[in-house]
Amino acid sequence: MENLKFSVFTKPWKNLSVWELATFISDLGFDGIEFPLREGYQLGPENAANLPQLAKQFEDHGLKIYSVASSTDEKVFAGCAQAGIPIIRIMPEITLKDGYMASVERARAHIESLLPLCEKYGVKIGIQQHYGNNIVDSMGLLHLIEDMDPEYVGAIWDSAHDALAGQQPEFGLDIVWSHLCMVNFKNAYYKRLNGPEALHAEWQRYFTTGRQGLASWARAAEYLNKNYYRGVVCLTAEYTDEPEVNRLIKKDIEYAKSLFA
Questions:
Q1: How far apart are CA 199 and CA 94, in angstroms?
Q2: Does the chain have fewer CB atoms within 10 Å around its N or its C terminus?
Q3: DSSP single-letter state for residue 240
Q4: What is the model's pLDDT at position 37?
Q5: Domain, as residue range, for 11
């Protein structure tokens, strides 16, 4: 387990000061964070040049910024390089207007246009799947990036979104293994919102704790251990029951660590 690092996406705690956030995350037992470098958070993309100072504030609490979720402007690349942040996470959009294949080609062209920045700054683009108007599963991720250099473009495998798409964790991880740069642990299931007497069934994706959804964290951890994964496992702290995030993320980091012990 000493070769694994546990990270958490700090999106739920946008109203905390950096000191409060770093103290809270450190006390939970994480090694570092994924930071939402977005408008309205502790630091926005327009101030990406201040990422080294932000990284230092977290380092003072024993934490590293392993990735940012942000735009792909050059100033974000430059700020990440200066701060020693190795990954910028993005999720390409798939639109009904363009259709799936045309959207993928557009996304591929955009990623390829970023390769000079990846090379210049030594920062990788991490592509994550997501339900809805995005690439939803591991096979879609591979289709998008399989011909790209994994030194510059990586796959961020998400346990919940692959499970919502019907994929088994062992297969999903195997599919993207050649480009795997980070693993997201979250969990979810489909919850019906109306009864069988309704004219049309309505379903909601319900995000829950690591033990309770469609995704098997245990099977994913077993595969990662068996294949000597050495990298970051990021808990995304996404729960439909948002007010309970502090209690639930504490349970989830304890569970995740137990799977790799």
A1: 29
A2: C
A3: S
A4: 98
A5: 5-260
> pLDDT tens across 45-98, in order?
999 999 999 999 999 999 999 999 999 999 999 999 999 999 999 999 999 999
Q: CB within 8 A of 8, min separation 6: which ones?
A: 25, 28, 30, 33, 34, 234, 235, 236, 237, 249, 253
Tokens matching residue 28: 């939970």
CA distance 236 to 167: 19
Query: Domain total for the chain?
Result: 1
What is the C-alpha separation between 174 and 171, in angstroms, rounded?
Answer: 5
Distance of CA 120 to the CA centre of its chain: 24
Tokens of 58: 């977290």
Q: What percent of the chain has pLDDT over 70?
A: 99
Instruction: Give the Cα separation of 81 and 78 in Å (integer).
Output: 5
Which residue is it, tokens 């098997």?
A: 216
Selection from 25, 20, 71 nearest residue 48 by Cα: 71
Contact indicator for 45, 71 with CB cutoff of 8 Å: yes
Say how far apart CA 241 and CA 182 lie, in whole Å. 25
Q: What is the CATH number of the domain that holds 59?
A: 3.20.20.150
For 159, other C-beta atoms within 10 Å of its C-beta total 28
Report pTM: 0.96
**Whole-angstrom distance, CA of residue 35 vs CA of residue 176:** 24
The partner residues of 124 in beta bridges, in order of sequence, read 87
Bridge partners of 191, per DSSP, are: 204
Q: Is 249 in contact with 242 (CB distance < 8 Å)?
A: no
Token output for 247: 């209690």
Spatial CB neighbours of 106, under 8 Å, sequence gap ≥ 6:
98
